[in-house]
Amino acid sequence: GAVVSQHPSWVICKSGTSVKIECRSLDFQATTMFWYRQFPKQSLMLMATSNEGSKATYEQGVEKDKFLINHASLTLSTLTVTSAHPEDSSFYICSARLGLAGYNEQFFGPGTRLTVL
Amino acid sequence: GQNIDQPTEMTATEGAIVQINCTYQTSGFNGLFWYQQHAGEAPTFLSYNVLDGLEEKGRFSSFLSRSKGYSYLLLKELQMKDSASYLCAVIMEYGNKLVFGAGTILRVKS
């Protein structure tokens, strides 16, 4: 099946710093990538939808100036958490969708665990 | 808003059969997914239903009734490794975002 990677798999940073997370589709081109956040013992919450070459669409309540998303190519999307604070500590997961007509499935990356001290 | 309901937790015995239900009320519907997620890992795809009926795949089966806004995931011959969280997710428009339920934590005991 299609493979999605994320880097880094975990990161610890100081409050106030920025952290960049990469999401790559390794063996397919992804016209659309999605970024989710998951707090402990909760389900995945969609943060934004990222389309190659255009601005991301953010979900209600997600600050676009704090969570910067760039989808510069069909295989790479990045999420930058700017001026991170302890409440941003979470598990961040990306997914990618094949750009095929009639194909709805999303493939998930392994996730990035962010801890802000 | 969108509403997807699943039981919070279930416990079953190794070798048994368990059914995890999911009901949904969404403004659109283009299919329903079931994912398995182990603690600290990303979700892995189990099944996708867009038409009414039962889809069988090995020990896992998934059923959908669009008229009732209802789905279930059936796990047979339970193994200890099946202990995980099971997420029901609806895709409301083709190619669009997934809306997840809160997940059902399944504990398999020996």
Describe this structure as you would to a colleague:
The complex is a heterodimer of chains A (117) and B (110). With 117 residues, chain A is mainly beta. Chain A is 0% helix and 54% strand. In chain A, β7 and β8 (76-81) form a beta hairpin. Chain A is globular and about 40 Å long. Chain A starts with a strand and ends with a strand. Chain B has strands spanning 3-5, 9-13, 18-25, 32-37, 44-49, 53-57, 60-65, 70-75, 84-91, 98-100, 104-109. In chain B, strands 2, 4, 5, 9, 10 and 11 form a six-stranded mixed β-sheet that branches. In chain B, a hairpin with a 6-residue loop joins β4 and β5 (44-49). The N and C termini of chain B lie far apart (40 Å). The chains are: A mainly beta (117), B mainly beta (110). The interface between A and B is medium-sized, with 22 and 24 residues.
Set out the fold topology.
The complex is a heterodimer of chains A (117) and B (110).
Chain A: E1 4-7, E2 10-13, E3 19-25, E4 30-38, E5 45-51, E6 57-58, E7 67-73, E8 76-81, E9 90-98, E10 106-108, E11 112-116
Parallel strand pairs in A: 2-11
Antiparallel strand pairs in A: 1-3, 3-8, 4-5, 4-9, 5-6, 7-8, 9-10, 9-11
Chain B: E1 3-5, E2 9-13, E3 18-25, E4 32-37, E5 44-49, E6 53-57, E7 60-65, E8 70-75, E9 84-91, E10 98-100, E11 104-109
Parallel strand pairs in B: 2-11
Antiparallel strand pairs in B: 1-3, 3-8, 4-5, 4-9, 6-7, 7-8, 9-10, 9-11
Strand count of chain B: 11
DSSP E strands of chain A, number? 11
Structure annotation, total helices of chain A: 0
**Averaged pLDDT of chain B:** 93
Low-confidence stretches of chain A: none
Q: In angstroms, what is the radius of gyration of chain A?
A: 14 Å
Strand content of chain B: over 45%
Low-confidence stretches of chain B: none
How far apart, in Å, are the first and last alpha carbons of chain B? Answer: 40 Å
Rg measurement of chain B, Å: 13 Å
Report on the biggest sheet of chain B.
6 strands, mixed
What is the beta-strand fraction of chain A? over 45%
Largest interface: A-B, 22 and 24 residues
| Overall morphology of chain B | globular
Helix coverage percent of chain B: under 10%
